[in-house]
Amino acid sequence: MEFIDKSKPEFKDNAHAIIKKFIDEQWQEDANQYVNLTYESFNSRELKDLLLSEQGRRCCYCLKCLSDKESTIEHIIPNKVADPASFSDYEEFGEISTNVFVWMENKRFVKINTPPFPHIIAYENLVVSCNGYIPYEGNAKCCNNKRGMKTIIPLFYIPNVKEEFQYDEKGIIVCHEKYYDTIQILGLENHTLQLFRRCWLNLPANYGIKDVYRANTDGMLRKEIVDDMDFVKVSLSDRTTILNQIYWNTFKNYCYFYRYNQAGIANGNNSINQSANYTNISTILARD
After folding, report:
1. Roughly how many angstroms between the first and final C-alpha of the chain, as a whole number?
2. In 100-253, which ranges are continuous DSSP H helix?
3. What is the biggest distance separating any 2 CA atoms in the chain, rounded to whole angstroms?
4. Contact indicator for 128, 48 with CB cutoff of 8 Å
5. Tens of pLDDT along 209-254?
6. Residues 102, 202: Cα–Cα separation, whole Å
7. Global pTM exceeds 0.85
8. Interatomic CA distance for residues 101 and 117, integer angstroms
9. Which end of the chain is less enclosed by CB atoms within 10 A, N or C?
């Protein structure tokens, strides 16, 4: 998991300018109110490009490398939130408390001059997620589309998230129990996502990201890479699955976990608290 810092001027200033322009355009002077100040009326293309750049084109949740067509804008405080009290679930995270307020219909009569901005378009309330696609399992199986409007902890707004949220050599999440509900809601322990992480974390040392991408169109290279994986860590069933063209085509886009492994995090060179509260989440979920 990666921290998203919403205080960087190179992104924040541009985002605020985009949002302020839209808000100003929706004010109707003769009616003395905002008209169509909604997310649906907002052309989000420019802001989405900015968010993708800010996040290194990675999904804020599963860390998949995103193409434009796979990316969706995620509202941390849900777009269609019905109760302003829900703001309290998120105000301690990131820059939300000082830059975001919950937009309700009765607020349209008061002009907005500076942040905080309405949560429906506020930069600090928006990140980019994948579209939830997982091979052979259909759409909306993880991340933004899986979550819907459920309350979560925005993991990417925790400054030390790399210490709080890690992955073992099987591709399984290791974290504090307070994050379990969020992980379940987002579907981040889907078996296919575990497989993708596991294969990247156990990629043979003589191969790199370019090799995996080349193997998407080179079946012989793909087989060589998979044959060289450790049989103890990557099972025969894993190998059969990952060799499939449809799986490999998505697998290659999770190269974040190759870099994660190269940094030594997956090999134990980290400072995670290995107390009873920090454990392999699949062990806990299996009990339910």
Report:
1. 25
2. 143-147, 161-164, 180-186, 191-201, 209-214, 219-227, 236-243, 245-251
3. 72
4. yes
5. 999 999 999 999 999 999 999 989 999 999 999 999 999 999 999 9
6. 44
7. yes
8. 6
9. C
